[in-house]
Write a structure and sequence with these properties.
The complex is a heterodimer of chains A (about 260) and B (about 250). By secondary structure, chain A is mainly α. Chain A folds into two domains: about 45 residues; about 200 residues, Orthogonal Bundle (MetI-like fold). In chain A, α9 packs antiparallel against α10. The longest helix of chain A has about 35 residues. The two termini of chain A are about 25 Å apart. Chain B is of the alpha/beta class and about 250 residues long. Chain B is built from seven helices and nine strands, in the order βββαββαααβαβαββα. Classes of the chains: A mainly alpha (about 260), B alpha/beta (about 250). Chains A and B meet through α7 and α8 of A and β5 and α4 of B.
């Protein structure tokens, strides 16, 4: 997970602060690209397989994929699968988290099971997913959801646990029913926790999605990597890797913005 | 003094082996300011939660003898305002609950903000309030559901002395003006003498030790010389002494 650059707390004239904030990332990216070029162009012989991964070959390959119309289709397919998987994870995770967080013995009962399941890579469930859901979108939804559900569950449980019992007492003293306590106190109180869980879920979902698309589907970014490899188009492989990284970066930035744990409703 | 709005007879409440209320009888008369006095651990918070219907009795009965409605709302030691809602929304919290559908009025909630001097703070978040302001919002929130009886559980004990004194005066004045029926529990004898029109002392063993009518409305400076004060302090000392030999019950 990337971290946002720290906001400079000292009052510095605007222009120099803006320049300084942009300078370091620019240097970082430039050095990375240079190293990438050095490793794939200077260090290896021209006929090597690695040479196809060089920036001067991969970047035109991105354009090529885009022009052929493959790229946009793959991106839309992959994002759709991510969205569905995340929605399943969110609904299931919040519901389970609320139940586990509110009932003490349920927490003790589920803790070892959840810790076990959480450490099982969703991809190891791929044969099960394909066996149960067949070929197509659904095993991918399942694998994304299976990976993304845990941070939602864990953060929801932590949120419910940290709700001030006094707030619940105050609501009950005003005549709130259990359902009203849930909607007026518990849900707003756990909102920041749930949003954190969803952001982590997005990161995990995106990482799980690509390999999940290498199994039993014929579309999406993960499939496109295998497809390019099968055509021995290694520049295409690198192009898709670049797109995956860039999209993940943008998704995380978007999630940061949308899912900020802002307490004002 | 009005008719009896709430009557508690033979109330018993246990937590495990610990008996907190042991056959306690209590009358809450309409339009009175009943102060229940007892040291910490004498069961006064439990008693208040029983009156609020937040605790179920193990034995005994809570009845409403005059049948004129005995809806309660409670103010706790901490304001317990929801930190994500502003002052206006906190005061209107009870309006979101079905139980108050017929009693809550949005107009009244707005009037309470004015009346309690909170109108300028309507858009503030609880974190921006002083302790005294927050507790006034908590009282307004309880009042906004239109209770017949306002229950207060040591509402000023977490505040600094100057604010505490100010809010006591404000509460007595407000209660008199709005003809509120209030039940306030406290461990503070001076607060009891200042605020109570009736003062009931708990005996420290889960029942009441005595009840005094207090027709006066003394000023803070007069409390030291108030005749009731000595009497209440004597009752207080005897039960604190008694608790020294018996295992203390928290509550």
């Amino acid at each position: 997970m990337t971290t946002a650059p720290e906001i400079d707390r000292h009052p510095v004239p605007t222009r120099s602060r803006g320049t300084r904030e942009l300078l370091a990332p620019t240097v970082g990216i430039t050095v990375t690209v240079l190293l990438w070029w050095f490793a794939t162009t200077v260090l290896v012989p021209r006929e090597s397989l690695l040479a196809a991964f060089a920036p001067q070959r991969a970047l035109p390959a991105v354009v090529d994929l885009a022009v052929r119309g493959v790229l946009l289709e793959d991106i839309v397919t992959s994002l759709w699968r991510l969205l569905v998987g995340l929605l399943v994870a969110a609904v299931l995770g919040i519901a389970v988290g609320l139940a586990v967080g509110s009932v003490g013995w349920l927490d003790s009962a589920t803790r070892p099971v959840f810790q076990f399941l959480r450490m099982v890579s969703p991809l190891s469930l791929a044969p099960v997913a394909i066996g149960v859901f067949g070929i197509g979108h659904r095993p991918v939804y399942f694998l994304v959801a299976a990976g993304a559900v845990w941070p939602v569950v864990m953060n929801t449980v932590a949120g419910v646990r940290s709700v001030d019992p006094g707030f619940v007492l105050a609501a009950r003293s005003l005549g709130a029913t259990s359902a009203e306590v849930l909607t007026s106190v518990v849900l707003p109180a756990i909102r920041p926790h749930v949003l954190t869980g969803l952001r982590l879920a997005l990161g995990i979902g995106w990482v799980v999605l690509v390999p999940a698309e290498m199994l039993g589907v014929t579309s999406g970014l993960g499939y496109e990597i295998l497809n390019s490899r099968d055509q021995l188009a290694y520049d295409g492989v690198m192009a898709v890797i670049l797109v995956i990284g860039l999209l993940g970066y943008l998704l995380d930035a978007l999630a940061r913005r949308l899912l900020r744990g802002d307490r004002r409703a | 003094m009005g008719t009896v709005a709430l009557h508690l007879s033979g109330a018993v409440k246990r937590y495990g082996d610990r008996v907190v209320l042991d056959g306690l009888d209590l009358d809450v008369a309409r339009d009175e300011r009943l102060v229940v006095l007892g040291p910490s651990g004498s069961g006064k918070s439990t008693l208040l939660r029983v009156l609020a219907g937040l605790e179920v009795l193990d034995a005994g009965e809570l009845s409403r003898p005059d049948g004129q409605g005995a809806a309660t709302a409670t103010v706790f030691q901490q304001p317990l305002l929801l930190p994500w809602l502003d002052v206006a929304a906190n005061v209107r919290l009870g309006g979101r609950y079905r139980a108050n559908r017929d009693r809550f009025s949005d107009v009244r909630a707005g009037e309470l903000l004015e009346l309690f001097g909170l109108a300028d703070l309507a858009g503030s978040l609880p974190a921006q309030l002083s302790g005294g302001q927050a507790q006034r919002v908590a009282i307004a929130r309880a009042m906004a559901v239109g209770p017949d009886i306002l229950l207060l559980d040591e509402p000023f004990s977490a505040l600094d002395p100057a604010t505490r004194q100010h809010l006591r005066a404000w509460l007595r004045d407000t209660a008199t003006r709005l003809r509120l029926t209030i039940v306030l529990v406290t461990h503070d004898v001076d607060e009891a003498v200042y605020l109570g029109s009736t003062i009931t002392a708990l005996d420290g063993a889960g029942a009441t030790a005595g009840s005094w009518a207090n027709p006066t409305t003394p000023e803070h400076d007069d409390l030291v010389a108030h005749p009731l004060r000595a009497e209440l302090l004597a009752s207080y000392r005897s039960q604190v002494g008694a608790r020294g030999t018996a295992p203390a019950a928290a509550g």
